[in-house]
Amino acid sequence: METKRLIIVAVGGQGNLLASSVLGEAALLCEIPLNMSEIHGMAQRGGVVESSLIFGDTRSTIISDGEANVLVGFEPAETLRALNKCNANTVVITNLAPLMPFTVNIGQGVYPDLKELQELIHKKTAKLIAFNAATLAKEAGNVLSVNMVLLGALIQTGILPLTVDQVKKAMKTKTKKAFLDSNLKAFDLGFAAAESA
Fold first, then answer.
1. Is the pTM of this model over 0.85?
2. What residue spans define the domains of the chain?
3. I need a surface site. Which of 2, 133, 152, 187 has the fewest CB within 10 A?
């Protein structure tokens, strides 16, 4: 199979690691080779969490600059920060609901303008799918399901060798039963949002 490289970036607490775990489980269920690595940074203090997932036969978990087939950003500024991993053929999916860093909140930093941020990403990549995933997570009944909204958008692109059914089966294994219904609804809302983007 053709190798596919995925980068997921988020701020600590947004559920990046659960999303990666669901994708890993889905790959395992359908016997797709997968190498995965994570960088936690200062995750517990709102720092960056980055996951690299490489689907296909490869020996490395490193995705070098310009190698990502797809970038999923749970937070807009983090998406912009990871843009160096992209190339002219990369598809970028980003949440447009910002989580303001401490420095911005105390007036010692400036958050990027969302319109300019999208223009920069659009210029460097093949396709940008950008929407407010936090709004869709609330609509699904769980404000913490932004990760599942973005997972739905990712699977809709058809870039990864995973189907909706495979990912939903993995969600049933990896997510808490109390949140399963809202997570499945969040996934479907993200899928629909990417479809109409």
1. yes
2. 4-195
3. 2
